Amino acid sequence: MNIYGVNFKDRGKVYYFNGQNLKIPLRVTVIVDTERGLQFGKVVSKMSQNDVNLDKESLKNIIRIATKKDYEEYLKNLKDAKEALNHAKEFSSELGLQMNFIDASFTFDRKQLLFNFYADERVDFRELARKLASIYHTRIELRQVGARDKASNVGGVGICGRELCCASFLNHLDSVSMNMAKNQNLALNPSKINGCCGRLLCCLAYEDEQYQQNSQGMPSVGETKETPYGTGTVISIDILNRRYKVVVNDEVKEIYLDEEGS
Questions:
Q1: DSSP output for 89-108
Q2: 220 Cβ partners below 8 Å, 6+ apart?
């Protein structure tokens, strides 16, 4: 089985497909089967079935390498989707709906027209869907997304200087809690621990398990601790290196937890 990584927009998320017996060079465009229908995408990686931790039987197939006619149809879909987005904005304004549209896209076979939008509250968009269906005569799907999904669709650069994780390699947005920031002994300053979406940084989850393991047996700042130098007050902790500093008789001492036999 040949497994190929395919994305549907530049620097977008990579989805894996069964290439069957096709031999496809990188950066070649293909037509793939998805849950939404046929889609036009670009091959960005190739790997053996042992390289990907996926259920191989559930992988959808690459139908064919895209032709010039396929590419022309794809460009037409992009143009029509942009026009549909303008119609959706116009109709939603007429209906008094508070919707911030992010994008619109046709499946390659035009069996579905998907709109992603952001709104602070739930929106009754049934009349809007009927208006759009009367024009485009296809299945209309309006998907209300959260702040994280909006950032994933729009993209951007994080405080680390890299492209947003959600817009590049994260295929699933896991829940992130304030406890993760606390476990990592971070200052609970929204400007430091929130991402572009205004929610907690996704990367707080990456090392949370390691922080939880290393924090076992670690004292808390302000705690009185018995040390080889005498009884002192903990003034700082370094969880990853399992060490902390205490003030003993007005002197600062550094203690490595594993070395003290705790």
A1: HHHHHHTT---EEEEEEE-T
A2: 234, 237
> Cβ distance 118 to 161 under 8 Å?
no
Using only C-alpha atoms, what is the Rg of the chain?
A: 26
Sheet hosting strand 100-106, strand order edge to edge: 100-106, 112-118, 139-145
The model's pLDDT over 140-188, given as tens digits with 9 standing for 90+, comes to 999 998 888 788 877 889 888 998 888 877 767 778 999 999 888 888 8
Instruction: Please state whether beta strands 100-106 and 230-238 pair in parallel, antiparallel, or not at all (unpaired).
Output: unpaired
The reply to whether the predicted model has a pTM over 0.70 is no
Kindly report which listed range (11-15, 122-126, 219-223) carries the lowest average pLDDT score. Answer: 11-15
Buried b (16+ CB within 10 A) or exposed e, 84-98: bbeebbebbeeeebe
CA atoms of 228 and 17, how far apart (whole Å): 59
Other CB atoms within 10 Å distance of the CB of residue 46:
15
Amino acid at 158: G
In whole angstroms, how far apart are CA 141 and each of 95, 97, 107? 18, 16, 11
List phi, psi (to 5°) of 63.
Answer: -75, -45
Integer CA distances (angstroms), 3 to 45, 109, 120, 160, in order? 9, 23, 40, 32
Q: Which of 100, 26, 23, 92 is nearest to 64 (CA)?
A: 23
